[in-house]
Amino acid sequence: MSTKNFNISNKVIWLSSLVLGLLMAVPKIAERPFNLYETVVNCSVTALFALFVWYYNIYTLPKYTHRDIAKGFSVTRLIISLVTGIGVMFLLALLQQELIANLDFGPNMLMIEVRGVLVNVTFYMFIHFLYQNYLHQKVSIELERTKMDNLAAQYELLKQQVNPHFLFNSLNTLKYMVESNDRHSVDFILKLSDFYRFTLESRKCDLIPVSEELNTLEAYIFLQKARFEDGLDISINIDKALYASSMPPFTLQLLIENCIKHNIVSLEKPLKVRIYSDNRFIIVENRIQLKRTKEASAGVGLENIKQRYLHLLDKQVIIESGDTNFTIKLPVA
């Protein structure tokens, strides 16, 4: 039998029901003279009832959510199970009375019903104990899997943050600026320093305020603008009411990096990116102008962000791809 992979062997169910029937028939076996027919009927009635209790309680196991597990078994369901069991036991008692006509129905009926209640309560408690234990183990496994997924996502994030291509391009840009006596060289060095300082500070956090994320993004955009100049057009318009909200660190930076990686960025064809807010969403939208030759990609950028939002905020990232624009909606906490 199974309820969402919860299993109790049919062999255990039938064997335990037969053993219980034999145990309840011991008084009949000890009687003198010994009546085999009555003993078999008595044993069969108990075994049949035990089978019913097993299968009834397994099939009616509740589909618990994670919140329900801590509550334990339900008293209401126990009462329903007892009432149902009493009804079934009454029918079995009638059957026993038909098979063994010389029994005194009143005392015999009371004895069978008491036996049924005891069997029902014992089996109910046992089955639900096993089921609760199974669910706790399942939740523990899911938590461990979530931790592993989160660690993997953080590892991928760290690899992307310390992107050797980004550092190489930044140093090349800095070299060009110094050689050409660009007056923004010092600002570039400071922004590069700020960006990696933000990286070291924020990578220890699961969530950071939107205001801190924007500070990191500002430093990143400055570095990219120094490289692409007017070929990169990024506008930011986020409601200040969202600044205290939380989001996974480096989300916006990774999305901008993703835009630059997959789209043409040039003075002849500037890449336009809008970052703005709408209710409880921060939206990143870029015009689609894909490169003819695609860069090598592991395909973990967007998946990384989706997994972190799912694990850390229990919210879904919305991705919309149209003919002209690519839009990502990030929920904020």
Automatic annotation (TrEMBL):
Signal peptide: none annotated. It comes from the Bacteria. One of its GO terms (cellular component) is membrane. Residues 153-231 form the Signal transduction histidine kinase internal region domain. GO terms for molecular function: phosphorelay sensor kinase activity. Keywords: Kinase, Membrane, Transferase, Transmembrane, Transmembrane helix. Pfam families: His_kinase. The chain crosses the membrane at residues 12-30, 36-57, 78-97, 109-131. The keyword Transmembrane helix applies. This is Histidine kinase. It comes from Niastella yeongjuensis. The lineage of its organism: Bacteria, Pseudomonadati, Bacteroidota, Chitinophagia, Chitinophagales.
